[in-house]
Amino acid sequence: MRTFVSAVATVLGVLLAAVAVPAIWLDRNIVQEDGFVALAAPLGKNSEFQQQLATAAVGTIDTSAVPGFLSNLVQPVLEQAATSMAGLPGYPAAWEETLRRSHRLSFPQPGDDPSAAKPVSSLTLDVAPLVALGVQEISTATRLPLEPPGETLINVGEPAQREWTERLATYAPMGYLLAAGSGVALLLALVAARRRWKVLVGAGLGGLLLAGLWVVGVQIGSAAALATDTGNEVANLFRDEFVAAANADFMGWTVAAAVTGAVLLVMGIVAGIASRRRAGTSR
Fold first, then answer.
1. Considering the entire predicted model, what is its pTM?
2. Which one, of 97, 88, 100, lies nearest residue 54 by Cα?
3. Is residue 121 scored above 70 in pLDDT?
4. What residue segments make up the domains of the chain, in order of their start?
5. In this predicted model, what pLDDT tens digit does every residue of 235-245 receive, in sequence order?
């Protein structure tokens, strides 16, 4: 009976971990604002993405208030702002604020006023901070008082993906409970086991198996995400870079799981050999 309980608890612990680890990663790096910003911030350093994003942001600037006879003066400034925006001192802060605003459109914070938030039907980037940076640059160069918009939205996904963000916000935080359950199950397996080294071996093999399954799952998920065409060059480039960044970050978690599994496996094998030697000596 103890052997059966130990075996079931080991399998249960591994299965719970299979869901808990990806869920915790999603909560920390996608659902939580700070994690999302940290993951996506390096995208703003990609030169191609910088240029396309700056061009798209500057292209939304409303210059209708500029007198017609000054239009020839404003156009070169607009072009200059698009090419030099990434080099402005305020660009890193504007990009970070863009990410935070964009994240809040998909994952409203607990203290946010729902009535004040503009509903969106798809994944979007709010590039208003970058537009404001361009407006400031143009105003400084032309001495014209231009008002930046409150928000400037660029779609980077489809409505179906927007639905997935809502599900993530609901279910990803449950990963911590699943992780706790996995730990309790493995502890129970050790307590109930007649030969604890077998539990270590089983948990180690399970960790290695999970690492391999996560790698395959990430590849399948990435291929599905990259196959979705948003119809927008900026959005497509953001998608490509973000998927690559997410893959690289989660790969670190996968490697950690594989290393942990290997360590448990070695510990179990060593403990098993030592146990057999003790049994042979006692005879």
1. 0.84
2. 88
3. no
4. 2-29+165-282, 37-162
5. 788 888 889 99
